[in-house]
Amino acid sequence: MSAFSRRALLGAASAGFAASLLPGLSARAAAPFQNTLPPAWHRFRIGEFEATIVSDGTLPLGKPEPAFPASPPEEIRALLTGNFLDPGAATLEQNALILNTGKQLILFDTGMGESMGAASKMFGPTTGRLLANMRAAGIQPEQIDLVILTHAHCDHCWALVDAEGKRNFPNAQVAISETDLKFWTDSGNKKGPEFMTSFIDGATKNLGAYRDRMIMVKDGQPVVPGIVALSTPGHTFGHMCYAITSGGTTVVNTGDLAHHQILLLRKPLWEFSFDSDPKLSAQSRARMLDRLAKDEHLILSYHFPWPGLGHVKREGEGYGWYPAPTNVTAL
Ligand SMILES: [Zn+2]
């Protein structure tokens, strides 16, 4: 073979090599998107207690204006865009706390669940993930000793039972204010906004399955040692926050005291469409936020950005939200 033809052959081979290499490279770059997320749970300590936050999934509200009917739309838009949030859609989280006190395993609120068929998906397909996330965090529903409810709305108590009405937490008692228990299981309250009928049907089905094992919580009183109920009426008439104290540390589970970390902290007196008494709700929010800011307690907020832990600080006529670091190696 002549030198010329050998070069020609090598040239042809290297051209062929390059040609075969390029598709290979592009194939590696075209790895499929994963399109999955890890289970959503976060674990930390509150004094001697072990706390785990599990998500029930995001709860999209859609256009924010109808949720804040008494607020100027241009102010809503300015607050959202000014904080790098989508002005066309408000998205809430659902951050449920599981507390191991060393004596009891306690779940605060249950998420939307699947007990009410199509109504369970009234906020779309992203809700109803609490049980799966709980199991992923190493906690079985049968281990829960007590479910403490902030209030009896769908996104807080509709996973007490499954679609057949069977208890999801077969060994648990349920603690709730007597006011909310009575109001949301009374068919006479099916009036006013359209959602009232399904909210009452859902609460009746879910709470009814635990009627022989209920604990009535009272303002200022411990539910169990280390957990004190704080009456904050308005969102519902029996809405409760819970102060959790262990080893000199206090975390306040604020439930639905405020639904949005910008709109209802910057404007605590704004009214929210799902409030039973919007003006009373605003008063409770203003009063409790003032206390939480002064005491500088860590807060767990059910609907704030995952995992809902942070502090509030007085700023102007409202409050700023300061998310707590969620370290991945420290416990
Ligand atoms: Zn809620």
From TrEMBL:
Superkingdom of this protein's organism: Bacteria
Q: Which InterPro entries match?
A: MBL_superfamily_lactonases (IPR051013), Metallo-B-lactamas (IPR001279), RibonucZ/Hydroxyglut_hydro (IPR036866), TAT_signal (IPR006311)
Membrane spanning stretches: none
Q: Which residues form the Metallo-beta-lactamase domain?
A: 93-303
| MF annotations from Gene Ontology | hydrolase activity; metal ion binding
Span of the secretion signal? 1-29
Task: Report the coiled-coil segments.
Answer: none
Provide this UniProt record's keywords sorted from A to Z: Hydrolase, Metal-binding, Signal, Zinc
Q: Which Pfam families match?
A: Lactamase_B
Which family does the record assign? Answer: Belongs to the metallo-beta-lactamase superfamily.
This protein's name: MBL fold metallo-hydrolase
Native organism is Roseicella frigidaeris
